[in-house]
Each structure stands twice: as structure tokens, then as C-alpha cells.
Amino acid sequence: xxxxxxxxxxxxxxxxxxxxxxxxxxxxxxxxxxxxxxxxxxxxxxxxxxxxxxxxxxxxxxxxxxxxxxxxxxxxxxxxxxxxxxxxxxxxxxxxxxxxxxxxxxxxxxxxxxxxxxxxxxxxxxxxxxxxxxxxxxxxxxxxxxxxxxxxxxxxxxxxxxxxx
Length: 165
Ligand SMILES: NC(=O)c1ccc[n+]([C@@H]2O[C@H](COP(=O)([O-])OP(=O)(O)OC[C@H]3O[C@@H](n4cnc5c(N)ncnc54)[C@H](OP(=O)(O)O)[C@@H]3O)[C@@H](O)[C@H]2O)c1
Fold this sequence. Notes:
By secondary structure, the protein is of the alpha/beta class.
């Protein structure tokens, strides 16, 4: 399984249950990576979507301890339940899409992290784990620097390091 997030220079990902910034090319990148795939997300991130509705053309698994059904999504009440729901999927087709609590809970199961790294420090209240400080992760690929008005950003793929035998 993989995770995908847009992070600022301090690995901030959100504030007040909203994204820090919306970059059209990043939205396109997210869509191209996740379309027709399975996404795992937290209930708060689902609520942050337009109309609180699951994303179209994706199998959505929402982590929640609440009992209400969510039209268009499957519910998992624990990490283990979510892992059980995706056990027959090709792991490359499963994307963890946030928020903070879900990234932290599923990172141990992820082999790649597709991060859009934005070169600006926002006032965030939600964060992605700092992969630059994590010896288990390394940068696999990095796009050239891109700009959106006065913002600079790049698409960086992190890979979990092979285990030393
Ligand atoms: N920059 C990005 O790429 C990106 C992507 C996604 C989200 N975000 C941001 O991230 C922030 C939200 O993150 P968050 O951590 O506050 O919320 P979240 O992870 O989206 O959702 C938290 C909720 O998930 C459920 N949950 C979490 N762990 C669970 C477990 N082990 N078992 C069952 N349910 C579990 C609980 O739902 P119940 O309360 O219903 O039980 C919990 O309240 C927002 O600011 C959002 O905009 C940013």
C-alpha cells in the first residue's frame, strides 16, 4: 500500500479540518494516482470533502468508530478491519489519503509515499510524519521544481528502504 499527501515545509497537511492550500496541478496528480483505485481515509477527512461525500470512481474505506453507514463507502472500525478489507487487492492499488491519524496508523504498512512538497511553512494543526527524519525512508524520485503563483513545490516519491538481511 502507498500513501499520498501534500505537505508544507514542516510536513504540515491541514488546519481546522481543511487543506492548507489547493494547487490545481497537485489535485490533478492526486486524481491520476488514485482514480479507479482503493483509498483509505479518516472520517474527518471525508467530512472535509465537498458535501462530505466519498470521491468518485474510487473504492473508499473510511475509518470511524461511529455506527452510521456512509453511502458510497465501506466502513472500517480499526486498522485491522481496514487491512482485512484490502487483503485481496494489489497493494500498489491501495492509497492511504489521510488525515494525520490515518497516515500515522497506516505508515508502517506503506512502501511508498507520494508527497507534494510545498516550500512554505503554514500555520498547520495536522501533520504528516517527517519522512526526512525517518531512517526507514529515502527519496526515490523527485520532480523538477514547479510553481503556482508565488508558491514553489515538487512531487517527491519516498520509498521504504529495503531491509538489511
Ligand atoms: N494535505 C493532505 O494531503 C491532506 C490529506 C488528507 C487530510 N488532510 C488534512 O488532515 C486533517 C485531518 O486529520 P485528522 O487526523 O484530524 O483526521 P482524520 O485522520 O481524517 O480522521 C480522524 C477520524 O478517523 C477515525 N479513526 C482514526 N483512527 C481510527 C482507528 N484506528 N479506528 C477507527 N477509526 C479511526 C475517527 O473517526 P470517528 O471520530 O468517526 O470515530 C477519527 O476521529 C485535515 O486538516 C485535513 O484537511 C490533509
